[in-house]
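Minutes, structural biology subgroup

Action item carried over from last meeting: produce the structure token record for GNAT family N-acetyltransferase (Candidatus Gallacutalibacter pullicola). EB confirmed the sequence was re-checked against the source entry. Recorded below for completeness.
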Amino acid sequence: MQDSKDVEGMMLKIFSVEPWNDDWSDREQLRQYVQELMGNRNSLSFGLYEDGGLIGISLGRIKHWCEGTEYWIDEFGILPAKQGAGMGSTFLAGIERCLTERRIFEIILLTDRDVPAYWFYRKNGFGEIAGMCFLRKKLRIGERKRFLTIRSAAV
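Output recorded by EB:
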């Protein structure tokens, strides 16, 4: 899967509707997001095609961890019109085959508990990680701190 424009279109079709309702009206933000997911040296993206057309995406990255190599899925989706027909499960099974051939031992992802995707993943063998939780902190842009200089190695 090479064409990021196709992936951007898929992101809009899959995630701008129920149950996600993601607001991707800032197309430049979407373009950069897709480039980040697909363009890093540890990126691993898969596409599901039907009759030559892209109908599913899995955008993620490989993470080398002390217990082995993992595939972290940042975005996984099937076109809404194609959902419910087993294509997502078939897609995941194909991804799992590719990963095991690469000696990647685990898939990790985040999803909301109150959406159908949660039950899709459970049906496909995913379980919650006991003792773990997902945290975030919203930052106030423009806030200045005294006496500290922070430098980033990111490009």
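Discussion: The radius of gyration is 17 Å.
Next step: EB to file the record with the rest of the batch.
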